[in-house]
Amino acid sequence: MTAARWRLRASALLLLMFSAANCRRGADAGHIARGSAQPAADAADPLPIIEYEIPTEDGVTLYVRAVGSPFASSTIVAVNGGPGISHQYIESLDEFANSSRKIVYYDQRGTGRSSKPPADHWGLHWQVKDLAAVVQKHRNRREAAVYVLAFSWGTLIAIAHAVEHSQHLSGIMLVSSMAPSVRKQDEAWAQGAHAVEEQYRRIVDASGLGCEAYKRAMNPVYFANPAHPKANGFIASECEPSDPSAEIANALVEWDFRERLASLELPVLVVQADKDLFGSFGAEEIAEVMTSCPAQVVLLSGCGHRVLDECGSRLLLTMDDFLAHPMACAERRRRRPLSTPDAG
Known about the structure:
By secondary structure, the protein is an alpha/beta fold. It has one domain (3-341): Rossmann fold (3-Layer(aba) Sandwich). The protein is 33% helix and 17% strand. The chain has 11 helices and 10 strands. Helix 3 (153-165) links the parallel strand 6 (145-151) and strand 7. Helix 1 (3-15) crosses helix 4, helix 1 packs antiparallel against helix 6 (245-251) and helix 2 (124-137) packs across helix 3 (153-165). The protein is globular.
């Protein structure tokens, strides 16, 4: 790999970070002891919220938050974007939980309330092991379906996990997906880097801004509508002093899952925004290579990279349809292509 590509990848990975990457809540804020429960806020029939920890084989402790009944007929394990941030910005998915559907979040190693790994344990291999541990914890009954829902950087973890552990899953949902090959992802990063550089140049004296002010100023680039109410949002109450994004970027070497995706027998939903600053390189490559069980690709019009924040209700409707109308791989092959725009 050329030095130029390494520089591009390292810088672009940092650009992938959600706007709160350097502006997050403190690691000990609002901690709830293992096994405790609290009602979901503003719910007519409150669903239990359980927070607990999962130890990993290399000594990391993963923080997990589960919303919904332990006897739900389906579980969705959510993998947030980043890298280097906690799951908190996707907690609006709580509203997707109900009496038969449980939502499970976890903080990736070294972020949020999960502990820091050994120095050489930041890579994709270990990220996949962590997701596998969370999925395994929630495969509590044979009849219960388990899905993985991933965003941005998290989609690479989900893809790598799916090709290794498809037998443990009922399907995966990829939102603003990274590409299954680094070659194609480099193109996405190059496009995104250009958009971010343009936004940076619009900020006067950006280098002198504090963490929160800088992130608020950069946020709009991730939205189709820069005037969206959340485009100037700020989730966290403070900036964490330690940011593992650089360690993760350095640990991410080559990857190419195209061949294994071609033979993957697992329902896959890909949700792509038409105004994503990183383009649709990931969605297009997934649709191209998945021949054994074609992926369903839904294009959301008028949405940017931050789909959950900008087009959340349409995203939830798309996912709900995918879950409510499962399509076997044989039917998917007959109906290919499965790429469609949403109702908008």
